[in-house]
Structure formats: structure tokens, C-alpha cells
């Protein structure tokens, strides 16, 4: 499926409108713990890969950095990821920001979802909030989303 076809298929999809949104004032970035949430179907060797229609998430250990991608969209070119994982999960950039004091700390954990879903309702109502709760309980203050 081409990009043009994907865009045409999605142009009439309605985006949800939320009457109320939760807002939490984060700490200053120089004091914040920052995590990444990616939609590149990332996982570690030994973790279960993402199956089609898998709306769960995988917890990524920041120290391992042996990421594999299970992204199966024909619109995804894995060459960039193979050359440098920072193209989909820019952890080296976060490390640099931490080193110069721009952020407080890079989180020990990050999350990945399979972003190529036709129905996002389960992520929006179940695994998305569950992942957010998990990150918050793990001490994460700020999340960077890296859509693929």
C-alpha cells in the first residue's frame, strides 16, 4: 500500500475529541526523568515480538539497547533503524541532553507499541492508559513520543 493510498484511506477518519484532558505540571526539564514511547514495534531479543493487531506494549530496558523492530508496514523502511536505532528511539540524544544538564535523567525504561494498527480503540482506552500509569509509577515525568 502506498503512502498516497494510506493517506486517502485515513483522510475521512474522525479524530476523537476529548471534553476534558488531564494535565499535570511536570518538573523543570533539568530535573525531569524522561522516557520514550515508540510505535516502531521495538522489543529486546527474547521478548515476544508484536503480532498483527497486537495492541499491547513492550517494556524496553534502557541499559540493553539491543533493540529489534517487528514493524511490518510496507511504508516502513528499516534501513535507517538498522544503521542507527536513534532514528526511531533517540536514546543517545537523550543521554547527551542528560550529560549537559538539559534533562534530569534518562529513564531506565521506555515503551514500544505496534503503531501500524487499523483500530486504535484498545490502545486509546486500555494499553495506552496502562502504559502511562506504568511509566508514572516508575518515576517518569516526561514522555517523548516517536511515531513511526
Mean pLDDT, all residues = 88
Largest sheet: 5 strands, mixed
Contiguous low-pLDDT stretches (5 residues minimum) are: none
Tell me how many strands there are: 7
* N-to-C span: 16 Å
Order of helices and strands: HEEEEHHEEHE
Q: Indicate the structural class.
A: alpha/beta
Helix content: 25-40%
How would you sum up the global shape?
A: globular
Radius of gyration from the alpha-carbon trace, in angstroms: 16 Å
Proportion of residues in extended strands? 15-25%
Please indicate the count of domains.
1
Number of helices: 4
Structure explained in plain terms:
The chain has 148 residues and is of the alpha/beta class. The chain is built from 4 helices and 7 strands. It has one domain. Helix content is 26%, strand content 18%. The strands form 2 sheets. Strands 1, 3, 5, 6 and 7 form a 5-stranded mixed beta sheet that branches. The protein is globular, with a radius of gyration of 16 Å.
List the helices and strands and how they pair.
Layout: H1 3-10, E1 33-38, E2 42-43, E3 57-61, E4 68-69, H2 79-83, H3 91-99, E5 105-106, E6 109-113, H4 121-137, E7 142-146
Parallel strand pairs: 1-5, 1-6, 1-7
Antiparallel strand pairs: 2-4, 3-6
In short:
This protein has 148 residues and is α/β, with parallel strands linked by helices. It is 26% helix and 18% strand.
Amino acid at each position: 500500500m502506498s503512502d498516497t493510498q494510506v493517506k486517502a484511506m485515513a483522510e475521512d477518519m474522525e479524530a476523537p475529541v476529548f471534553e476534558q484532558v488531564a494535565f499535570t505540571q511536570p518538573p523543570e526539564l533539568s530535573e525531569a526523568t524522561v522516557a520514550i514511547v515508540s510505535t516502531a514495534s521495538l522489543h529486546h531479543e527474547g521478548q515476544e515480538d508484536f503480532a498483527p493487531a497486537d495492541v499491547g506494549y513492550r517494556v524496553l530496558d534502557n541499559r540493553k539497547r539491543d533493540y529489534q523492530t517487528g514493524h511490518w508496514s510496507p511504508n516502513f523502511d528499516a534501513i535507517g533503524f538498522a544503521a542507527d536505532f536513534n532514528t526511531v528511539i533517540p536514546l543517545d540524544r537523550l543521554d547527551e541532553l542528560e550529560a549537559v544538564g538539559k534533562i534530569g535523567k534518562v529513564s531506565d525504561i521506555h515503551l514500544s507499541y505496534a503503531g501500524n494498527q487499523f483500530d486504535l480503540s484498545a490502545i486509546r482506552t486500555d494499553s495506552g492508559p496502562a502504559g502511562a500509569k506504568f511509566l508514572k509509577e516508575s518515576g517518569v515525568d516526561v514522555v517523548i513520543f516517536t511515531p513511526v
